[in-house]
Amino acid sequence: MDLDPVISGFGVVFEPQNLLYCLLGVTLGMLIGVLPGLGPAATIAILLPITYDIEPASAIIMLAGIFYGAQYGGTITSVLLRLPGEASTAVTVIDGHRLARQGKAGPALGIAAISSFIGGTASIVLLTLVAPVVAEFALKFGPPEYTVLALTGIFMVATLGSGTLVKSVAAAAAGLLLATVGLDPLLGTPRFTFGSDQLADGIDFVIVAMGLFGVGEILYNLEHRHRAQGGVLPFGRAVPGRPEWIASRWAILRGSVVGFVLGVLPGGGATMSSLVAYAVEKRSAKDPSRFGKGAIEGVAGPESANNAAATSSFIPLLTLGLPANATMAILYGALLLQGIAPGPALINDHPDVFWGVVNSMYLGNVLLLLLSIPLIGLFVRVLRVRPGILAPLTVLVTMIGVYSLRNNAFDMFLVIGLGLLGYGMKKLGFEPGPFVLAFVLGKLLESSFRRSMRVFDGDVLGFFQRPLSASLFAAFLVIVVAVPALRVVRDRQAARTPDETPVV
Amino acid sequence: MTADLDGRDPDGLPADEPRQGGPALAVAAGAVPALIGLAALWPAVGLGLGSLTEPGPGLWPAFVAVLLVAAGAVIVRGALTARGTADTEAFTRGTAAVALGAASLAAYTFLFELVGFEIPTVLLLAGWLRFLGGEKWITTAVVAVLATVAAHLLFITALGVPLPHLIGS
Fold it and tell me: Which residue, A155, B6, B94, B145, has most beta carbons within 10 Å?
C-alpha cells in the first residue's frame, strides 16, 4: 500500500483552518448530541448550504465531526438523565443510568468516553487499510454491478431500519418515485414536472434532506416538546478507576469489532451496532444477571461499537459512492455540492479530501476525548437552552440556507412541503431514512439498471452471467438470508431498551 | 415512552408525550402511499413503457408506483386485521401548532421576496418565540431582533448571500 497520500493527508489535517473546522465540527456534534430532538442528520442537513463556500476537505471534515461527535454527546444525557441524546446511545441508558444512580456516574462517563475513543480510533485504522482495497476493486464495476449494489443498499436500509418492514418498503418506494421527478436520465423526457421549469432538473438532494430532516424534525418537535429536564445526577470527575477499566477492556475490543463490521452494512450503522454489542456483552458475561443493574461492560461495549460504526460507515460512501445510512446520504449530498462525485475514483482524484477527512477523525476523536472528560459539566449546561428559543433559530438558518443554494424562493416552498411530508411520515410510522436513501440511490439504480438492460439486450439473466455482478448478487442473497437473524437480535434487545427520543 | 424508574414523571407535567394513533390512522398510513402510487401510475403509463430492451421513460416510474401501491395495500390489510397499528401517532392539539408553523414559513417565503429580509425575519422569529415557543414578550423581542441582526451579518455581510434586503448594500 502506498503510504504517501496517507501521510500528506495529515498535512491537510494540520492546516490551521482545518484544525479549526475539526474542532468546530466535533464541538457542534457534542452539543447537538447532548440536546435531545435535533440529531446529527438534521444538523448536517441544515448546515449544508453554509459549507458551500468552504474548501471541500474542510467542509467534509467539519460535517463528519458533527456526526461522530454526536455519538459522544448522546452518551452524557443517557447516563445522567436517562434520556438518550441520540438513538445510538439509547442502549447505554440501561446500565449507564443505573451506574449513575449508584453514584458511579463519573466512572461510567469516563469509560464511555474512552470506549468511544478506542472504538473510533480502531475503526479509522481499519478503514485506512480496507478502503483503498475496496476502491481499487470497485473501479472494475460497471452498470450491472451498481444495479446490484444499489438494490442491496436500498433493501438493507429498508429491512434493517427501525420501522416495520412494509412501511420501510413503502417509504423507499416513495423515495424512488420522488427521484424520478425531472428529466429521464437516458432519453431526456420530462417526467412529473407538471410543466414547471423549476422541476425540470429534478429535486436537489440537499433540499430533500433539509426538508425531511431539518424542517420535518423542527415541525415535529413543535407538537411534542421535550419535557422539562429533571435533576441531573451528580457526576464528579469523569475518570474511570482501575476496576472499571479492567472490567471493560475486552468489552471495548468486542464492541469495536462489532461496530466496525455492522457500520459498513447499509442500514446497520451506529444504532444497530450498539444494540448488538450490548447483546454480545450480555451473552459473553460470566454472570449475565448483572446487566441492567449497572454493569460497566454494558456501557463500554455499545459505546465503542457506536463510534466504530459511525467511522466505518464512511467506507461504502468514500469507496463505492453508496451511502450506508441517512447521515452518510447527507454527506453524499455535501460532496456533490462541492463538485466531488463520491465513488471509487475519489481516493485517486481527490486524495486530499479522502485522506484529509479520514485522518481528521484521529484528531477529532482526541479532541472529543479532551472535551468529554474535563468539560463535561459545560455540555450538560446546554440542556438549559429552551427548545422555544432553539426552534425559531434553527428554522431561520434552514430557510435562508435553502434560499442561498440557488437564490430561489421556489426551493423554500419545496422545503416546507417536504418538511410537512417528513412530519406526516413520522406521525404515520414511516422512517425517513429509507426514503432519503432510496431518493439518493434511485437515480443511480434506474440509470444503471437501464444501461445494463441495454448491454444484456433486455435479458434479466445477464446479471447472473457476468462474473462480477453474479458474485455481488450471491452476496446480496446471503444478506437476504442473514438480515432476519440480525433483526431478531436487534428487536429482542430494543424491546428492553427505553424508547426515548428516537432521533435520526 | 418510559416514565422515571420510580414510575413517576420527574417534573410532574401532564403527559405531553405522543399518543398512539387509532385504527383509522393505521388504515390511512397505508391508503396514502397507495393513493400516491395510483396517482403516479397513470402519468407514468402515459409516458410510454417501452420494452425491457428499450425501456420507455415511464417504465421505471410505473414499476416504482406499483411497488408503492402494493406496499400501501399490505399496510391497509395489516391495519384492518388489527396487526401493525401500534406505530402511528395520534394527531393532537399540538398539530395546530405544526400547521401554524408551516403556514408561517410559507408566508415568510412569500413576504421576504416582496419587502426584503429584515421585517419578515423579525416577525417570523417573534411569532415562533411567543406563540409556538411560549416565551415572554421581553425574551421574544430581544431574541428576535438580535437574531435578525446576527443573521444579517452572517448571511448578507459575511457569506454574501444575495437575499433581498433593505439595510446595507
Answer: A155
> pTM for the whole thing?
0.83
- pLDDT per position as a tens digit, A439-487: 988 888 888 888 888 888 878 888 888 888 888 888 888 877 877 777 7
- In single-letter form, the type of residue at position A431 comes to E
Q: Which of B71, B94, B98 sits opposite A173 (nearest CB)?
A: B71
What residues contact residue A121 under an 8 Å CB cut-off, 6+ apart?
A362, A365
Residues B117, A418, A441, B59, CA torsion sign: negative
What's the angle, vertex CA A14, arms to CA A12 and CA A19, rounded to 5?
105
Q: Does A397 touch chain B (CB under 8 A)?
A: yes
Backbone conformation region of residue A433, classed left if phi is above 0, alpha if psi is from -120 to 50, else beta: alpha
CA distance A200 to A202: 5
Pairwise CA distance, residues A208 & A212, whole Å: 6
Q: Using CB atoms within 10 A of its CB, is residue A389 exposed (0-12), middle (13-18) or buried (19+)?
A: middle
Locate B158 and state its grid cell: 459575511
Asked if the Cβ–Cβ distance from A387 to B21 is below 8 Å, we say no
The shortest C-alpha distance from A172 to chain B (Å) reads 9
- Is the CB of A387 less than 8 angstroms away from the CB of B28? no
Listed in sequence order, the residues at least 6 apart from A291 whose beta carbon sits closer than 8 Å to its beta carbon are A94, A95, A278, A281, A282, A285, A297, A298
CB contact under 8 A, A224 and B18: yes
Give the type of residue at A102.
Answer: Q
pLDDT 10s digits, B78-133? 888 865 557 788 888 788 889 999 999 999 999 988 888 899 999 999 999 998 88
Can you tell me the distance from the alpha carbon of A326 to that of A435, in angstroms, rounded to the nearest whole number?
9
Complex ipTM, two decimals? 0.87
Chain-chain contact of B84 with A163 (C-beta, under 8 angstroms): no
pLDDT tens-digit series, residues A252-271? 999 999 999 988 887 767 88
Residues of A with CB below 8 A from B94's CB? 222-224
